[in-house]
Specification:
- By secondary structure, the chain is an alpha/beta fold.
- Among the domains are: 119 residues, no CATH class; 312 residues, Peptidase S8/S53 domain (Rossmann fold, 3-Layer(aba) Sandwich).
- It contains 13 helices and 32 strands.
- The chain has an 11-stranded parallel beta sheet with strand order 20-21-22-23-24-25-26-27-28-29-31, with helices on one face.
- This is Peptidase S8/S53 domain-containing protein.
- Keywords: Hydrolase, Protease, Serine protease, Signal.
Length: 712
Amino acid sequence: MKTFKIGGAAFIIASALFLAGGNTYAEELSPVKEKIISEFQEETIDQEQEKLAKGEENLIYVQFKAGISATEKLAFERTFELKNKIDIGSAEIYQYRLPDQVVSEEVLVALNQSDIINFAEPEYKVTPSQEAIDLSGIWGFQNIEFPGIDANVSPAWNYTKGSPEVVVAVIDSGIDLNHPALKDRIWVNKDEIPGDGIDNDKNGYIDDENGWNFNQNNNDLMDTMGHGTHVSGIIAAGQQAINSSKINVSGLAPNVKIMPIRIFTTGESAGTTAAIRYAINNGALVTNMSFSSTGNSATREALMKEATNTIFASAAGNNGMNIDITPIYPAALRLSNNISVANMTNKGTLSSRSNYGIKNVDIAAPGSGIYNTFLNGGYMTYSGTSMAAPYVAGTAALIRSISPTLTPAEIKQIIESTVTPSLIFPNIIKSGGFLNTGKAVELAASNTIQGVFPEPALATEIARQVGKQVTDVFTPTDAEKITTITLKRATGEASKPASAEGIQRLKNLRTLDIRQFNLGTIDVSNNKLLETLTLEYDGLNNIDVSNNPDLKYFDVTGNNITAVNLRNQPNLLHCDIQNNKISSIDIHKNLDLVQFHATNNDLASVDVTANTALVNLAVGGNKLSTLNLSKLVNLKRLTISANKFSFIDVRNNPLLDYFSAGANQLTALDISRNPKLVYLDVNNNQIKELDISRNPVLTQLYTSYNPGIVIR
C-alpha cells in the first residue's frame, strides 16, 4: 500500500504547475519526472504531524506510464472525468475527478498497482490540528528539538509585531481572502472605490482594492493553488490557537499588511515585472518573491535596482545546485536591496534541494516542514526556499516597523550582520549563517535615535538636526551630520538622572554643550574632533579628555570632579573647572590658555608661569597661599579671593583692570604698576595702608573689614 505524506499531491501539483513558462515556484520539487515523488517525500513533511482530511475528496492526480495508448487512456476517462493537464518537462500529470464518490484508499491502491500508471495521488486539505502546539512548536520560531536552530523570533516581539503602516507585497498565486488568519491582514487601497468600475486612484488598474491579478488582468486575487496563501501566512498570519488555548500558527509580523499580487493561476506565470512595478508604485516597503527562472530580465533587474525604498526577499530555488555557477533569478541579482534566501532544515543543515552560492545566496532561513495557512481557511505544511524567503521578508517588515527610515541596503546589512553563525554555511552562503530575527530587530531598534540616545532631550535634538522622528533609525550618515549639541535643562529638573549614551557615535562632533543634566558619567573618547566641551552641573565624578587634542574650550563647572588631565590639549584657550573638588592640576603645556577659572576647588598650588597668554585668571575659594604671576604680562582679570594669601605680587601685570582679593590674609598690596585698574576688592584682609594714587581709572574700590586701613 502506498504511503502518502501531508499535502503530497497538492504540493506536487501546485509546484508542478509553476514549471510552465520558464518560471518555477521555489518548492522542493524537481522537474524530472522520476524524482517527483521521491524528492517530495524526502523533503516535505514529518509523517507524525497533523492528520489530514480530504478537501476535494473526489479529485486525483495521475501520471501515466510512458507508451500508454490512446485507447487505454480513453478507457480510464470513462470512469474519471478529466479536469486539467499539467506539463512537467517531457512528462504530464493529469487532474481527474471521480464523479459522485470520494477517492478511497482502495481506489488509490488499485490505481497505483495499475500497469499503465506511474502514480496516483489524492488532493488534500489540512484541517485544524488536534495536537496542542504552543509557539515553541513552530520550529522556525523556537526549535525545541534542536535548540538555537531557528530564527529566534520571540525576542523581536519585545520590540514590535509589525506596524499596519508597513505593507508587504507577496507576488505569488494570490491569497485566501477569507482565511481567518489573513483576512484582517490584507492591504486595502484606500484611494480606490470598490466595484465602481473606475480607476479612482489613476494607477492604471480598475477596482484594485486589495491588489491585482496580472495573469488574468483583473482584480481576482483568490488563491486556487495555496502557495501564495502559505507564503503570506509565514509573513503575517494572525496568531491562531487551533483546537487549543495555545498559539500554533503565526506570521513573523502579524500586524503588517499583505498586498497580494497574483501572477500564477493555473500554472502559467505572467507579468513579474509589472507586478514588481505595481508593488513599488503602491507603497510596498517589502516584497516577497518565492519564484524563480533561469533567464534574467534586464527590465526587472533595472526596476528592482531603482526601487530605493523597497527591499526584496528572493527564494534561492530548489535545484540543489550552486547558483554562482548556474544563476537562478531574481535570487542571483546582486543588488543592495535584494536578499537571496536558502532553505535550512530544523537540524541546521542546508536542505538537499536548496540552491546555494557563496556569492549569490545571502542567507539561510527555516524552510523545511513549515506549517501555516492554506486554502479554504485551512493549514498546510510545505517545504522549500519558497518558505524560507518569507521568513526574511517578515523580518524585514519587523525592522521596517521599528525603524521606518532605514534604507533597504541598511536592512539587508542588519539582517546579514546578525545571522547565527554556522559551521555548515560559511563556504556556501554569503553571510555564513542563518536568520536571527530577534537579533536583527534588536539591532534595528537600538539603531533608532531613541535607542542610540536614550536621554529624551538628546534624542529629540538629534532627531531635529537630522530631520527625523526619534523612532527612526540613526544611520552613520546621520552621525556624520551632527557637529553641535547644545542642551540646557531647567534648574528644577537638574537632579533628574540623565544619560549621555550615544554621544560617542558622533565622531564629527565639534561642540558639545550639556548643562544641568545629571549625567553621572560621559564618554567623549571617540569625539576626537571636539573643540568645545561644556558640561556644567551634570553630576560628573570624572572626565577624560585625553583623546580630544583639538579641545579649545573646556568647561566642567559645578560637578564633583577630583582630577583633570589637560596635558594633551596644546590648543586649549579657555578652561573652566569651577565648583569641583580638584586638588591639583597641571596646565603648563597649555601655552595658548587665555582664560583659567578654577574657583571653589581644593587647590593648594597652581603653576601658571608657562601660561603667558593668560588674560583671565580666577582661583578664588581654594587653599592657595602663593601664586607666581610674574610672567603674565597680558593678565587683565584676576580673582584670588577666599584663599590664604598674605602676599601677592601684581607689579608685572600692567594690563590688570579687575582684581578681586577679598577674604585673604593680606597685610599690604602694591598696585602702583596697575594703571588700568578699574575694580579692586580687598575686603576682609589686614591691609593697613593702600596707595591708589597711580590708579587714575579705579572707580570701584572695596576695602571693608580691614581694621584701620588708610587710603592714599
